[in-house]
Automatic annotation (TrEMBL):
CDD domains: ACT_AHAS. GO terms for biological process: isoleucine biosynthetic process; L-valine biosynthetic process. This is ACT domain-containing protein. Coiled coil: none annotated. Belongs to the acetolactate synthase small subunit family. Keywords: Amino-acid biosynthesis, Branched-chain amino acid biosynthesis.
Length: 391
C-alpha cells in the first residue's frame, strides 16, 4: 500500500518532503507533506481516493491543527562543550537518550520550525547523524462545539447511560460491517485477522504485526536505516523493492538527514536474518540509495511519536491528565469534549497508554514510525529493563 501511494506522487513528479506511517491494527494513518498548487493537489487527492484500500483523504493545511515531529540528533561532545550542550537541551525541552565519550544523542519533539532551530544551534558542535520522522497532525477541536465523539466514551459521559445509545451504536455497527469494513477486508499489504464478534470501540493495538524476537522460526522485526537521495520518485523505488518481494512494511518514517539533499528512511520489516540480508543486497543495487544498515543486532536508541485524542468531559479530564503525567505525556490541545496528548517512547509505552485510555474513548490516533540511531555508548537498553536497582 505504501508503494501504491508513493507511486501516485512519483508519477506526477511530486517530491514527498516527509512521510510518517504508523500501523494501528488493521489500519494505517499516513501523514504526507508535499508542496504544490491547490488545484493540482486536489487532483492528487482524488487519485488517492480511488485506491482500493484508501478509506479517507483529508487536506489539513488550511485548518487549525496540532502538528508535531520527532528527531534524534547525534552531535559531537567534547568535555569543554558538554555544559553548553546541556544548556541548549534544557532550553529546547529536549532529552538525552545516549551519551558516550565523544558524542551525545538528543531526542527533540516539536513543530518543524523548532527542529530547524535545534539543528542550527547544535551545528557548531558537529552534527554526526540525524533521524527525523515526518510531521504528524490532528485537527484541533473547537471550544464550545457539540461533542461529536460522545458515542466512543461511556466512561466520560455516564449521563448518557439509559438513553437510546444502544440503538445508535447498533446502527453504526451495521453500517461499519457492511460499509467500511468491506472496503478494506482482504487487503494485499496489511493482513486482517478474522474476528468472531464485533466491538464498536476497537482499541488501536500497536502490537499488530510485531514478531517475537525469541521465535524459534527465526522471524523477527528488523529495523533498517537508509540514506537516500532527496528527489521525486525515490520513495516509490525503495518501497517497490519491498513490495515485489512480498515484504510487509510495519512502519516507515522519512525525514531530512544531516546532509543537505539526502533523506533518511527508517523502516521496520519482519523477516529472518538471511532473508533481510538478501533484501539489503538488493537495496544496495539502487542508484539513489547511498547507505543501508540493519540495526537489529546493534545497540540502538529507538523512539516513536504519537498524538492521541481522547473523548472527555470536565469530570473525566482530571483522570486523563493524571494518567498522562505517569507516562510523561503532554496535553497539546483541549476542548469542551476532547483532549489531545503527545507521547514519545518505545512501542510498549504506546500500547500501555492506549489500553489505559480505552475506557474514556479514543477518537483519533496519529503515530510516526520508529526512528533509530546507533548507541555510541554500546549500551543495549533492552538488557537493562526489569532490574529493580541500577546496574
Amino acid at each position: 500500500m505504501i508503494n501504491r501511494i508513493a507511486g501516485v506522487f512519483a508519477r506526477r513528479g511530486y517530491n514527498i518532503e516527509s512521510l510518517a506511517v504508523g500501523l494501528n491494527k488493521d489500519r494505517a494513518l499516513f501523514t504526507i507533506v508535499v508542496s504544490g498548487t491547490e488545484r493540482v493537489l486536489q487532483q492528487v487527492m482524488e487519485q488517492l481516493q480511488k485506491l482500493v484500500n484508501v478509506l479517507k483523504v483529508e487536506d489539513l493545511s488550511k485548518e487549525p491543527q496540532v502538528e508535531r515531529e520527532l528527531m534524534l540528533i547525534k552531535v559531537g561532545a567534547k568535555p569543554e562543550h558538554r555544559a553548553e550542550i546541556m544548556y541548549l537541551v534544557d532550553i529546547f525541552r529536549a532529552k538525552i537518550v545516549d551519551i558516550s565519550e565523544h558524542s551525545v544523542t538528543i531526542e527533540v519533539t516539536g513543530d518543524p520550525g523548532k527542529m530547524v532551530a535545534v539543528q542550527r544551534n547544535l551545528s557548531k558542535f558537529g552534527i554526526r547523524e540525524i533521524a527525523r520522522t515526518g510531521k504528524i497532525a490532528l485537527r484541533r477541536e473547537k471550544m464550545g462545539a457539540s461533542a461529536p465523539f460522545w458515542r466512543f466514551s461511556a466512561a466520560s459521559y455516564p449521563d448518557l447511560e439509559g438513553t437510546p445509545v444502544d440503538s445508535v451504536i447498533a446502527g453504526a455497527r451495521d453500517r461499519t460491517v457492511s460499509g467500511e469494513t468491506a472496503a478494506y477486508v482482504g487487503g494485499d499489504v496489511y493482513p486482517v485477522e478474522p474476528t468472531d464478534g464485533f466491538s464498536f470501540n476497537q482499541v488501536l493495538d500497536a502490537h499488530w504485526g510485531v514478531l517475537n524476537d525469541e521465535d524459534t522460526s527465526g522471524l523477527r522485526s528488523h529495523t533498517l536505516s537508509m540514506i537516500v537521495k532527496d528527489a521525486p520518485g525515490v520513495l516509490n523505488i525503495i518501497t517497490g523493492v519491498f513490495s515485489r518481494r512480498g515484504y510487509n512494511i510495519q512502519s516507515l518514517a522519512v525525514g531530512h538527514s544531516e546532509v543537505e539533499g539526502l533523506s533518511r528512511i527508517t523502516t521496520v520489516v519482519p523477516g529472518t536474518d538471511e532473508s533481510i540480508s538478501k533484501l539489503v543486497q538488493q537495496l544496495y543495487k539502487l542508484v539513489d540509495l547511498h547507505e543501508v544498515k540493519d540495526l537489529t543486532h546493534i545497540p540502538f536508541a529507538e523512539r516513536e511519536l504519537m498524538l492521541i485524542k481522547i473523548a472527555v468531559n470536565a469530570a473525566a479530564r482530571r483522570d486523563v491528565l493524571d494518567i498522562a503525567s505517569i507516562f510523561r505525556a503532554k496535553a497539546v490541545d483541549v476542548s469542551d469534549h476532547t483532549i489531545t496528548l503527545e507521547l514519545t517512547g518505545d512501542l510498549d509505552k504506546m500500547v500501555a497508554l492506549q489500553r489505559l485510555l480505552e475506557p474514556y474513548g479514543i477518537c483519533e490516533v496519529a503515530r510516526t514510525g520508529r526512528i533509530a540511531l546507533v548507541r555510541e555508548s554500546g549500551v543495549d537498553s533492552k538488557h537493562l529493563r526489569g532490574y529493580a536497582f541500577p546496574v
